[in-house]
Amino acid sequence: MVQNKEKKNILIIKPGAIGDLIHLTPVIRALAVRYPGAHISLVVGSRGTATLFQYNPHVSETIIYDKRGEHRSCRSLLKLWRRLRAGNYDLVLHFQRSNLKAWILSTAAYPCRVLVYHKAKKRVVHVVDNYLETIAPLNIVGQDRSPELYAGEDDEQFAKDLFNDNGFAGKIVIALNPGASHLVNRWSPEQFAALADALAERLAAAIIIIGGTEDVALAERIASATASKPLVLAGEMTLLQLASILKQCDILVSGDTGPLHLATAVGTRVAALFGAADPARTGPVGAGHRVIQAKGVACVPCRSRTCAGSQRLACMEKISVKDVIDVVQDMVNMDGALESSKRGRVRS
Question: Which residue ranges make up each domain of the chain?
């Protein structure tokens, strides 16, 4: 068996999106357990995604590789290469096979052992399990597959103060996330508005609308179309503040996008709207989540990021508001109205 001392300096390359990095956290945790005291460096694609690991006890440092900005030029890429070269890594895990420059960066660690992620083909495997397959050669098997995220005390307090200031104590709080990078993962604004009003009326729930800066106009459009006037928080938070707010919420309703996976990582249940995306591949990981898909749409899931169907985006549009209300109501009922004892206090 390989001894721990042989793998004390580990480099992981994954300049991906929020969901990709959340799905990678079981791998990082498994490496930390397998090699106690290891120095784990993680290459990410932006300063924003780097903050996801600011308080992660398993990650020693994050290294930013901004291929469209700071590291666009060959000169800047070489500077980053030299920084990695100085790291003297014992092991490299390469999770970004399609990125040529990422391959160039990985050569900075040679000679050392390199394990490369291979996306599952001709079989359906959840991405978390697919990532974990990458470290199987290290005799790491049967690991906990639950994602995780750590926030700072300031982020947690931000969320608690926001909930207290808005009188959410004692209420069911449901977050709606209408945005997504790809249109095939978006439910319509009109449906979200109708859902907000129905949940506020049926469950007496407090509704918040979340999202990034690019979702502000969308969130405001939805809120303006409601009678319940949900609290719009889109564009007003850092990623760790958003994660902390989601931790305080009872349920998140979202398509397959970053905030959905943030919610699973902090233990908040998700009512996940899936159309083109395959929940068997990227669905929420953990207990209590529910996946909602349109009935009678033959191409679901097509696993494409663009719609080529005869009925454009029918996979999302045919998820009815009633379908989502019924699922959320059932989630509430299954938990005894979300454990009413918890609703009288802000979650710690």
Answer: 4-138, 154-340
